[in-house]
Design brief:
The complex is a heterodimer of chains A (393) and B (314). Chain A is α/β, with parallel strands linked by helices and 393 residues long. Chain A has helices at 2-14, 17-45, 58-62, 64-73, 90-98, 122-154, 162-176, 190-215, 223-229, 235-264, 273-297, 302-319, 325-334, 336-341, 343-356, 361-385; strands at 50-55, 83-88, 104-109, 112-117. Helix content of chain A is 70%, strand content 6%. Chain A is elongated. The relative contact order of chain B is 0.14. Classes of the chains: A alpha/beta (393), B alpha/beta (314).
Chain lengths: 393, 314
């Protein structure tokens, strides 16, 4: 029964012209357009050193961690540095920003860091991200050091070695923390960001496949669903076999997209292609599961469900920075929980983390989060469909 | 299955907000019979079927199929049920053969058994020449036949047909009705909903007439016709009929009504025998010359009209 439903769901989806277009043709068309639109500006937009300024006021000088970090990131002797930093007054920094000599500047207002930028772009976003990272690390060091000092005091040592405690805390954090990579030599450009966006969108389009596969089996969606509902087959079997068929079609679509972008459009995914594919697999599962959940849990007609699914997908993409990378920063800073439940954010964050960090911790957290998201969506769907009778059909 | 009744419905009530779509319905379907649920649109026929199939929640009552309580996961019961819904429920992306195979495969695992069942269903529905056709290549009548083939290919012992002949050409309709009789002859019990009285009369062993969710009459077609107060209706095409003749007809024995409109005289009789013969004798005696004369027994529509004050097709 499982294989039977799988086989026919596969045929039904594969022969559905609308689904085939959105799954196979649309990403390829969009990818071709991206390549045509961005190839000319790619070389000029490739990431090099980012020019920034730091307002060299007393508050900055007093913040040892921040000062040390920016000195390191802007160290001219380091060939892998990210920033070209000038230390200036606030007025001078503003002047440099106005004349677009720098992407932005850091101003410490007491303990409060302020990042001032003039426009939204990749350089500005990296500057914001890096500063956030340093501040978070500083906070962690402070917390660890304070705990250590409290422990020393509790043990009867009323004059602990503060300097050593802070250095030790810093070392512990550095041992565990991810370190930022140099991205200047990588092929991370607007074009690459758009291709990541394209892969993420293709993953989430799987939602339409999932929704169609489930709708075909729901009695309130038409007589086909009624006919299936009166068969002696459990909803769980139908759901899982439909999911599997949809997933394989989704993977075929992604494979075609990868082959086309690599061999025809000559997109260089760098050394991380295998990890990009793994993330795309997890992302596709999440997209598919989201579509299944919308189909299973919303008691309405097909048009409403499609509208809801597209609305959710677009909103998730918007919040994840697919339509402007600054939005990702705003969400991460002000509403971090949204990033934790947003599959589009998990996919994009996974892609960016492959480029920003030397370690893969954050990448694997995103892959795991996508799998957990998929599991939750599927469990909710099965619960919604189990033993279901309708008030009206 | 020792149970005498294949379906037992007791006190079934289904309400949508303030509307009572099915009102305290109780009936049984015996093994091997064709039960017709006859009623106009909105009388509760499809709602009753959907409740029996556990697709719809119902407000009160109980439903047993093959002596067991019906529920959404009563797979042993569902295994022996076939359903043909009003709308054609097939996949546009699959061929005729694949559609039948898909639905049949949800009941029968074994490929060889399934192939035999599919071939039988194709033969019964007369779709042999169209096996490789996609649904959009079929006419309306052929689509209906495919719809039926998909519902009965697994050889169920209980079949629900919900208005399967709506918008079907006469040839396909006859084909479908013949197929249903054949299924009954092979031992299936059939529950058939329709608003076509001729179909119900032709096909069903027993008919339940529904109106506004309630049973207003039930029995065989002949038993139901007994409920009509008229026994016979005679229509005479006649020119320039004199008023005194009309009055004489009205006062004749057993005559209920006699109306002369245009050049047609319609006479209805209450009970009694040989009314038609007596009328012809009367016409001969009075020297009345008529063009055409014929007699009809009351139809189910007349019964429905008498019981509800409206036509079945209203």
């Amino acid at each position: 029964m499982f294989l039977h439903n799988f086989k026919y769901t596969f045929k039904i989806i594969f022969r559905n012209k609308m689904l085939v277009f959105w799954t196979f043709a649309f990403p390829i068309v969009l990818g071709t357009l991206f390549k045509m639109a961005f190839s000319n500006i790619e070389s000029s937009e490739k990431l090099n050193l980012i020019d920034i300024a730091v307002v060299d006021n007393q508050s900055f000088k007093d913040n040892e961690i921040l000062k040390e970090a920016f000195d390191t990131l802007g160290d001219e002797k380091d060939s892998e540095r990210i920033f070209d930093i000038v230390y200036v007054s606030e007025d001078k920094a503003e002047e440099l920003l106005e004349s677009e000599d720098i992407s932005g500047y850091l101003l410490m207002d007491g303990d409060e860091p302020k990042i001032v930028v003039k426009q939204n772009g990749i350089n500005e976003t990296i500057f914001q991200y890096v500063t956030e990272e340093i501040i978070q690390t500083g906070n962690t060091v402070n917390t660890l050091a304070e705990e250590e000092i409290a422990a020393e005091v509790a043990a009867g040592n009323f004059s602990p070695d503060y300097k050593n405690i802070y250095l030790s805390a810093l070392e512990r954090v550095q041992d565990n923390e991810v370190s930022l990579k140099d991205v200047s030599n990588k092929n991370l450009s607007y074009t690459m960001i758009e291709f990541y966006t394209l892969i993420a969108m293709t993953c989430l389009y799987g939602g339409i496949i999932g929704m169609c596969a489930v709708n075909n089996n729901l009695p309130n969606m038409g007589d086909k669903g009624k006919r299936t509902a009166v068969t002696p087959v459990s909803k769980g079997k139908v759901l899982i076999s439909s999911l599997l068929a949809g997933y394989i079609i989704q993977l075929i679509g992604l494979s075609i997209l990868f082959v086309y972008t690599i061999f025809v459009l000559k997109v260089d995914y760098g050394d991380n292609l295998a990890l990009i594919i793994v993330l795309a697999l997890a992302g596709s599962l999440a997209g598919l599961s989201l579509g299944i959940a919308v189909a299973a849990l919303i008691k309405s007609n097909e048009n409403t469900k499609t509208g809801v699914l597209i609305g959710i997908t677009m909103f998730c993409c918007f919040l994840s920075g697919m339509m402007g990378i600054t939005m990702k920063y705003i969400v991460d800073k002000n509403m971090p929980f949204l990033g934790k439940i947003n599959p589009a954010a998990m996919i994009t964050d996974g892609f960016y983390s492959l480029y920003y960090y030397d370690t893969y911790d954050r990448y694997f957290v995103n892959v795991a989060a996508l799998l957990v998201f998929s599991l939750v969506m599927l469990l909710l769907s099965v619960r919604g469909l189990r033993r279901q009778k309708y008030d009206s059909i | 299955m020792d149970n005498k009744y294949v379906i037992e419905v007791k006190g079934l009530t289904k309400e949508y907000n303030n509307l009572r779509a099915v009102d305290n319905l109780s009936f049984e379907v015996k093994k091997g019979e064709i039960l017709g649920l006859l009623g106009p649109n909105g009388s509760g026929k499809s709602t009753t079927i959907n409740c029996i199939l556990s697709l719809l929640k119902f407000s009160s009552g109980s439903i047993k199929i093959f002596g067991e309580e019906m529920s959404p996961d009563a797979y042993d019961i569902k295994r022996n049920i076939g359903v043909i819904f009003q709308e054609v429920a097939v996949f546009e992306e699959l061929t005729v053969y694949e559609n039948i195979d898909y639905f049949c495969g949800l009941y029968i695992k074994d490929k060889a058994t399934r192939k035999k069942c599919i071939d039988d269903a194709i033969k019964l529905a007369g779709l042999g020449e169209f096996k490789k056709f996609y649904p959009k290549q079929l006419s309306g009548g052929l689509l209906r036949r495919l719809n039926i083939a998909c519902g009965i290919a697994h050889k169920p012992s209980l079949i629900f047909l919900d208005e399967p002949t709506v918008a079907v050409d006469p040839q396909s309709r006859n084909n479908i009705l013949d197929g249903i009789k054949k299924l009954r002859d092979e031992g299936a019990t059939i529950c058939y909903t329709t608003h076509y009285m001729e179909e119900a009369e032709l096909l069903c062993d027993r008919i339940i007439i529904l109106d506004k969710g309630k049973i207003i009459a039930q029995g065989s077609a002949d038993e139901l016709k007994e409920l009509a107060s008229i026994e016979e209706k005679v229509t005479v095409e006649i020119n320039n009929l004199k008023p005194e003749i009309i009055e004489a007809v009205k006062s004749a024995e057993n005559v209920d009504t006699a109306d002369y409109i245009g050049n047609t005289l319609v006479i209805t009789y209450k009970k009694g025998q040989n009314n038609f013969g007596a009328l012809i004798d009367f016409m001969s005696r009075e020297g009345v010359v008529y063009n055409k004369i014929f007699s009809e027994r009351p139809t189910l529509n007349d019964v429905f009209l008498e019981l509800t004050g409206k036509e079945l097709r209203d």
